[in-house]
Specification:
Helices cover about 75% and strands about 0% of the residues. The chain contains 30 helices and no strands. The termini are far apart. The relative contact order is 0.03. This is HP domain-containing protein. It comes from Triparma retinervis. InterPro entries: TPR-like_helical_dom_sf, TPR_rpt, Villin_headpiece, Villin_headpiece_dom_sf, Ycf3.
């Protein structure tokens, strides 16, 4: 069969083989056969070889119409084949390889359909690589070919949203939805764009339609939850986030963060209204959704307060310790732990915590005062004196510190007097010992003198004058020693019989008793709160100025804030008891608002307290 017949039968490889055999025998091929061989190469996807054959024809006959047409067709075929290869890489997730293949496509010969496909896919790859401006260029190029393609319009809208061009993105999403009203991704994109523009109520309306269209998809639930959260509709937001968690197979980290935020806001509200157990559960759930290795210190502290008021004191203390591990500069946690340790008689631990608190905020007078109390209870009187002096440097009129310092300085003077008396008693004891020793020496001297006298008498009787003289000399020396020993003994005895030191006066005894009341063991209650409210103490009960009974419901730390900072609904200052915000008002403002002192207010029954707080806008 001749080559033409083989080509017509679709036997392209055999046709190529037959033409090559003819070339061996004839040594040269006609332009017709070269064109035929080139077309067969194209049919078998050997485009580069086909192009070489067409170039051979055109080299000999540049005006060969068949070769010109075939060459153009081969270039277009090559572009299509390269696009097909790139599409396979794209579908396989090899975006870098696909991008290189797409970039090699010759757009000058590509068909409009091919150009649209390549530009659209390149834009999608750039979006994957977060090269949003490059993606926008490709989507614009694709829309030049097919300006009404909804998918590409959606892609462009998403890219516009990614670079913050929200108004343009919103218009593009609306164009998509005008063509396809239930285009779910376009609806979600519009919701997110409206949220970015703070048009939250509109976002909720669009989200309602999206959820109605696809109730089992998580994205619209998450977007509506964000819009509700921004409108302070916490319960609605939590319901939406629960829906997103239920229907989402791959929840994003961003969703987890926003969901955790909603839980924290709800927990804060529960804590504020005294629903401590529910608040604790909410905080625990929020902490489980966030970064377990890096939780927010403020959330940990609020959780510790919820645990404390739920009766879980040990767990509360552990959460406070976790709080200062996360943020070593978290003042309220250090102060709360210090005062809790102080209340429970763990004075060394109280000192450590309160020292950290005063390091962070040295101007906090009440915390500094309680550090002095901790030193006092730990029997470190000198450190207590120095600490109370520091408090009085900040507030010279701090009554509790004034009384504590006066008591401590007096007690230290009394202790110094006791020490002097003890030293005097020791000197008397030593003198007594020395006097007894002198008496013993005197007795020995008397004995020696008597024996010498007897010897002298014997010597005299025997008329031994020399011996008598010697004996007399010894006797004289012995008598001299006896007299000296007697003198020393008399002096020691006189010292021993000296008038003993007078007993302590009544004032000193009273002072000593007051000091012992301040420093006795762990059974005494520790004052932490009533001094915060400026309560005065009777002069007769010095100990009460330092060791007043703790009010179980009182806040551990007292700080003054303005009315605007404490008004509902917040946000409130960091570290305060939100359910007792009124106690942080300055005393004069509190009396003006409530027509009574803080002490009188807290003597009221709880329902009366709530009623008065409602009257002044503190509930």
């Amino acid at each position: 069969m001749n080559p033409a017949e083989l080509y017509n039968d679709g036997k392209y490889d055999e046709c190529i083989k037959r033409i090559e055999e003819m070339e061996v025998t004839d040594h040269d091929l006609t332009p017709q056969l070269l064109n035929l061989k080139g077309v067969c190469k194209m049919r078998t996807s050997k485009v580069d070889e086909a192009m070489e054959l067409f170039d051979r024809v055109l080299k000999v006959d540049p005006d060969n119409g068949e070769a010109v047409a075939n060459k153009k067709g081969s270039v277009m075929l090559k572009a299509n084949l390269m696009a097909d290869a790139a599409n396979k890489q794209f579908r396989a997730g090899d975006f870098s390889g696909a991008l290189k293949s797409y970039e090699a496509v010759d757009f000058s010969v590509a068909s409009p359909e091919l150009k649209f496909q390549v530009c659209n896919n390149m834009g999608a790859i750039y979006m994957q690589q977060r090269k949003v401006p490059d993606a926008l260029k490709q989507f614009d190029a694709a829309l030049e070919v097919q300006p009404l393609n909804v998918d590409t319009i959606h892609n462009k809208a998403t890219a516009l949203k990614g670079v913050g061009r929200m108004e343009e993105a919103l218009a593009a999403f609306d164009q998509c939805l005008a063509a396809q009203p239930e285009f779910y991704s376009a609806m979600c994109g519009k919701i997110e764009t409206l949220n970015a523009l703070s048009r939250f109520s509109e976002a909720v309306v669009v989200a309602d339609s999206a959820i109605k269209a696809k109730p089992d998809e998580y994205r619209a639930y998450a977007d509506r939850g964000f819009a509700n959260l921004k409108q302070h509709k916490i319960d609605d937001a939590l319901s939406d986030f629960d829906g997103a968690m239920k229907h989402g197979s791959k929840q994003s980290s961003e969703l987890m963060k926003v969901y955790a935020l909603a839980l924290i806001l709800k927990a804060d509200s529960l804590l504020n209204t005294g629903r401590y157990h529910e608040a604790s559960e909410m905080y625990e759930k929020a902490l489980s959704l966030g970064d377990a290795d890096k939780p927010a210190a403020g959330v940990l502290f609020n959780h510790s307060l919820a645990l404390l008021h739920s009766g879980k004191k040990a767990e509360s203390m552990l959460e406070m310790e976790h709080c200062v591990e996360v943020d070593p500069e978290f003042f309220s946690a250090w102060a709360a732990m210090g005062l809790t340790h102080l209340q429970n008689g763990r004075f060394a631990k109280a000192i450590t915590c309160l020292e950290n608190a005063t390091r962070i905020k040295p101007q906090e007078i009440e915390v500094g005062y309680h550090l002095g109390v901790a030193f006092l209870k730990n029997n470190d009187l000198e450190a207590a004196v120095e600490q109370f002096k520091k408090v009085l440097q900040l507030d010279p009129n701090h009554v509790a510190s004034q009384k504590a310092l006066a008591l401590l300085e007096s007690s230290l003077a009394y202790k110094n007097k006791e020490k002097a008396q003890a030293q005097e008693a020791e000197r008397a004891r030593v003198a007594e010992v020395e006097a007894r020793a002198a008496a013993e020496e005197e007795a020995k001297a008397k004995k020696v003198a008597a024996e010498a006298k007897i010897a002298a008498e014997i010597a005299a009787k025997e008329a031994d004058e020399a011996a008598a003289a010697e004996a007399a000399k010894v006797a004289e020396e012995a008598e001299t020693a006896r007299v000296e020993a007697a003198r020393v003994a008399a002096e020691k005895k006189a010292l021993e019989e000296a008038t003993p030191p007078p007993p302590p006066t009544e004032e000193e005894s009273k002072l000593q008793g007051a000091f012992e009341d301040l420093t006795v063991g762990e059974d005494q209650p520790v004052a932490t709160t009533k001094a915060y409210r400026g309560k005065t103490v009777d002069e007769e009960d010095i100990g009460a100025a330092l060791m007043d009974e703790v009010d179980g419901d009182a806040c551990l730390i007292q700080m003054d804030f303005s009315l605007e900072e404490l008004k509902y609904p917040g946000p409130y200052p960091k570290g305060i008891r939100v359910d007792r915000r009124e106690q942080y008002l300055p005393d004069d403002l509190f009396r003006e608002m409530f027509k009574m002192s803080k002490d009188d207010f807290y003597e009221l029954r709880k329902w009366r307290q709530v009623a008065k707080k409602k009257e002044v806008g503190m509930w």
